[in-house]
Amino acid sequence: MRLNVSAPPFSTPRRPAPVVALTAVLVLVAGLLLLWPDRAGAAADPLISRDRPTTASSSESSALGPSNAVDASATTRWASTEGKDPQWIQVDLGASADVTRVTLSWEAAYAKAYRVEISADGTTWTRLAGESAGNGGTDDWTGLSGKGRYVRVYGTARGTSYGYSLYDLSVYGSLGGGTPPSGTFTVVAAGDIAAQCTAAGSSCAHPKTAALAQKIDPRFYLTMGDNQYDDARIADYRAYYDKTWGAFKAKTHPVPGNHETYDPAGSLSGYKQYFGAIAYPQGKSYYSYDEGNWHFIALDSNSFDQSAQIDWLKSDLARNSKGCIAAYWHHPLYSSGGHGNDPVSKPVWKLLYGAGADLVLNGHDHHYERFAPQDPDGKATAKGIVEIVGGMGGAEPYPIEQVQPNSQKRISGEYGVLKLDLNATGYTWSYVGTDGQVKDSAPNYTCH
């Protein structure tokens, strides 16, 4: 059922009406609730679309991207390209959900005809609701019954000569057929970040990835090395990285890359001076910490050939009591990019695999890539580690050169960040571009 409100959404409150008029309004509302009894309980449905990854068929501009429709802001909106039908916007709920309600708050450019659809895989869609004579305002679809991970609004006829524009797309229901998983939190990650450029340069990417990362507002941030180019001097950190990703330095857990070793003042000198105890919380360039049921291990792949770090890792894994393990460093064992596979990581992989680790994050190659679970020898196995290469934080992109076995998805040339959604028993993630659109969504994994 639908409640159409003729006043524009989020309008400025008006002066109080006379008592008689107010009484009439209350009588009308009561009558609506009697006609539509399911509306009385609609407010109890949990909101499950807030700040979830979104994609759209088009956007009028980068300032009017699809993520604006799920950010709960009264002043931001998504707008499609003008004058074209059909157009759509979809939200990734992050897991299969039982959807019971969808509300749409239209801007002046509304849809006269559209469908609300749901999908398990983002490919095959099932109709939840439909409109053929829309008049804008707010459409509130209640009493819905659909199960899937993706919800889409598919516009087939514009109500104006412009495009389609939504202030808000809200989806209500329950994830996984119940309440959201316990211990849920979000982490943003990226590697290969700050080139020697600023926001004044139109081609400078790290200000854009920083703005995206900050908008997501995760529990904390990870960096996978090569945080500052070209040789990571302290002066460059202050001139470039600090102006963008430095805005949330206090919430960042970094690791160094090979460019941090090029500093003329000494290997990792600028890195250590800039991050201080944040990068050396345990007095070394490698460390670990816990969040919820997750154990995070930050490693320095520049010194994997030194026994001190390997011995420390063995001890750290032996002490771990958490059910899920994520490790991150700079040089990937497997990569389809220009640097290719780096065997320096294999001894570390063997230790992590033996401890039942779940996830490894790397940079070095400037592209995005995800791999199916595999063992240290590259054999696909359900017991294996999932590896993600996330080197698209701002440095110049590298092309894909030789696709490796078990590589499931590769993206080069589009800057962005990893948005990791973790809970007490598993995880998933999306690769979000600087335009706010989701470029890739991962499966849901259960921790070993």
The total domain count is: 2
Kindly name the structural category.
alpha+beta
Q: What's the end-to-end separation, in Å?
A: 43 Å
Q: Which blocks of ≥5 consecutive residues have pLDDT under 50? A: 3-43
- CATH topology of the largest domain, by name, is Purple Acid Phosphatase, chain A, domain 2
Radius of gyration equals 24 Å
The named CATH superfamily of the largest domain: Metallo-dependent phosphatases
Number of helices: 6
CATH class of the largest domain: Alpha Beta
In sequence order, what are the helices and strands, one letter per element? HEEEEEEEEEHEHEHEEHEHEEEEEEEE
Overall helicity? 10-25%
CATH architectural grouping of the largest domain: 4-Layer Sandwich
Report mean pLDDT, rounded to a whole number.
Answer: 89
Q: Could you give the count of β-strands? A: 22
Largest sheet: 8 strands, antiparallel
The proportion of strand residues reads 25-35%
Name some characteristics of this structure:
alpha+beta; eight-stranded antiparallel β-sheet; PAPs-like; Calcineurin-like_PHP; seven-stranded mixed β-sheet; globular; disordered N terminus; Jelly Rolls; 2 domains; acid phosphatase activity
